[in-house]
């Protein structure tokens, strides 16, 4: 059915910069504010040509996209687009865009901060002061160290590479695991994740989420990392077998963990709250004003440029531009 006007549906609450940026160009519908979403989709679904969602907006799957017969582009707020079925979109002529590069340095900074916090126990030391224990119990116990340590990176992509460059400056020895070795890096490549985990002190997880990486950090990997091992996850909670991780952290078979992401956010396994060997963050890797504004602007620019016939700026791999077929 030919549609003349480019109308955009926002599926969940977004930052004002995105909503206002889209409203400056398009008729925008906010699904999250509608009391009768089904009635809206039935009456207006055919008018929707652009859609914006993102982490925490629920799954944008084939069944949902299929209800909008003239949908042409989905803008994902985030570089990770495991919440959108991009394969289905590509097969149905729909472009998916994400927000690569603009958040790389922010997330890499956070990953290093979380690593240092976990090894040197900075949040625990802060609590020690606030609880008056420095006065009542004396000096804070000595901690682990990054000196003479080896870090293995799961996923040496844009963010993994930026973490590696920072880690080099901290004097860490580096190794990595991904599906294919990178030609232009000096770090040791491991084809086997469990072999890498056995050889390193720290496992930094920063590969994409989704079914292909679900529970890739399994019991064998965490046991190989061992009682002195440090697990840092800034990727997606789904990459780590969470119940097994909790069990190993409680028993001391895994040394410590720094976690920015969890399997069922914002729900965090409550067993973790009582553990002194974990640092927990509420998915704040890209969460600065500066970087979120860059991400939001890229979401808007992708849809505006596409609507003007100039193609998307950052289409994902499954939906290359121009679409084939
Ligand atoms: P990227 O440039 O695409 O890098 C991903 C890397 O993972 C690639 O080097 C890839 O190498 C590797 N990889 C992919 N599938 C793999 C698999 N099955 N097994 C092993 N390695 C695999 O992505 P990025 O921009 O660095 O972002 C990475 C992820 O970080 C995102 O997808 C997102 O989930 C997460 N993230 C989290 C936050 C946060 O706030 N905590 C913020 C931004 C991003 P090969 O293709 O050679 O395997
Ligand atoms: C989130 C992220 O998108 O880019 C990603 O993949 O995980 C984050 O930047 C951000 O928290 C928005 O929910």
Question: Which features would summarize this protein structure in a list?
Answer:
single chain; 325 residues; alpha/beta; Rossmann fold; 2 domains; seven-stranded parallel beta sheet; five-stranded parallel beta sheet; 12 helices; binds 2-keto-D-gluconic acid
Can you give a write-up of this model?
The chain has 325 residues and is α/β, with parallel strands linked by helices. It has two domains: 7-100 and 289-307, 3-Layer(aba) Sandwich (Rossmann fold), CATH 3.40.50; 104-280, NAD(P)-binding Rossmann-like Domain (Rossmann fold). It is 34% helix and 15% strand. The strands form two sheets. The protein has a seven-stranded parallel sheet with strand order 8-7-6-9-10-11-12, with helices on both faces. A five-stranded parallel sheet has the order 2-1-3-4-5. Helix 10 links the parallel strand 9 and strand 10. Helix 1 runs parallel beside helix 12 (289-307), helix 5 packs across helix 8 (158-169) and helix 9 (193-199) packs parallel to helix 10 (219-225). The longest helix has 19 residues, at 289-307. The two termini are 19 Å apart. The model has no long low-confidence stretch (mean pLDDT 96). The protein binds NADP nicotinamide-adenine-dinucleotide phosphate and 2-keto-D-gluconic acid. 2-keto-D-gluconic acid (8YV) binds at residues 54-56, 77-80, 103, 283, 285-286.
Task: Offer a quick outline of the entry.
With 325 residues, the protein is an alpha/beta fold. Helices cover 34% and strands 15% of the residues. The chain is globular.
């Amino acid at each position: 059915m030919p549609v003349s006007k480019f109308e955009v549906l926002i599926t969940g609450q977004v930052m004002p910069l995105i909503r206002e940026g889209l409203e400056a160009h398009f008729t925008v519908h906010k699904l999250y504010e509608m009391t009768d979403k089904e009635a809206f989709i039935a009456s207006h679904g055919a008018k929707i040509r652009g859609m914006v969602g993102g982490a925490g907006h629920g799954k944008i799957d084939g069944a949902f996209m299929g209800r909008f017969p003239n949908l042409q582009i989905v803008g994902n707020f985030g570089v990770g687009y495991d919440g959108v079925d991009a394969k289905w979109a590509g097969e149905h002529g729909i472009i998916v865009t994400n927000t690569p590069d603009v958040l790389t340095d922010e997330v890499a900074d956070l990953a290093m901060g979380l690593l240092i916090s976990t090894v040197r126990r900075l949040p625990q030391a802060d609590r020690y002061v606030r609880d008056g224990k420095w006065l009542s119990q004396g000096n804070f116990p000595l901690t682990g160290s990054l000196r003479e340590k080896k870090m293995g990176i799961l996923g040496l992509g844009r963010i993994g590479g930026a973490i590696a460059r920072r880690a080099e400056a901290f004097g860490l020895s580096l190794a990595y695991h991904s599906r294919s070795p990178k030609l232009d890096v000096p770090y040791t490549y491991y084809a086997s994740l469990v072999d890498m985990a056995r050889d390193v002190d720290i496992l930094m997880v920063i590969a994409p989420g989704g079914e292909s990486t679900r529970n890739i950090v399994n019991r064998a990997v965490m046991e190989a990392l061992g009682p002195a091992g440090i697990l840092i996850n800034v990727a997606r909670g789904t990459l780590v077998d969470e119940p097994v991780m909790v069990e190993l952290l409680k028993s001391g078979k895994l040394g410590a963990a720094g976690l920015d992401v969890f399997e069922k956010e914002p729900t965090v396994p409550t067993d973790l709250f009582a553990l002194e060997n974990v640092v927990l963050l509420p998915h704040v890797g890209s969460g600065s004003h500066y970087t979120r504004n860059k991400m939001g602007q890229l979401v808007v620019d992708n849809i505006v440029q596409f609507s003007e016939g100039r193609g998307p700026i950052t289409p994902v791999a499954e939906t290359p531009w121009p679409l084939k077929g």
